[in-house]
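User: I'm curious whether this sequence folds into something compact or stays loose and floppy. Could you predict its structure so I can see for myself?
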Amino acid sequence: MKKQSMITEQKVNPAKVKFSKRLRSHMTKSEEILWQRLRRSQVEGVHFRRQQVLFGFIADFYSHSKRLVIEVDGKIHNERVKEDKKRETVFLDNGITVIRFKNEEVETQIDKVLQKISETISETNT
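Assistant: Here's the prediction. I'll summarize afterward.
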């Protein structure tokens, strides 16, 4: 039996859930840096989950209340442009905003990254 996720009526593959748990325990350096700033609702009081299964994909960070996905892209994403576009389209089609950052941005310009996240959260409030 498939488990239901936090998104109403969305069925989640148990193997995908298991994989997302594995990803949470093996985050990249950039994901870890951003997670330390997102966790415990530190940005605009918004709760984020990490490695959240959404519509068959695993989003790096997701705020259900703001319907916001944050992706942190390493070099592998240079080879996955088509796949990333597809997943972004699925998220957008389901009313979810997506913002992307490169590893280097997170590691060297965390304040700018957090500012962009805050601005995006503010835009979702209007």
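Summary: The helical segments are 14-25, 29-38, 81-93, 103-108, 110-124. Residues 1-5 have pLDDT under 50 and may be disordered.
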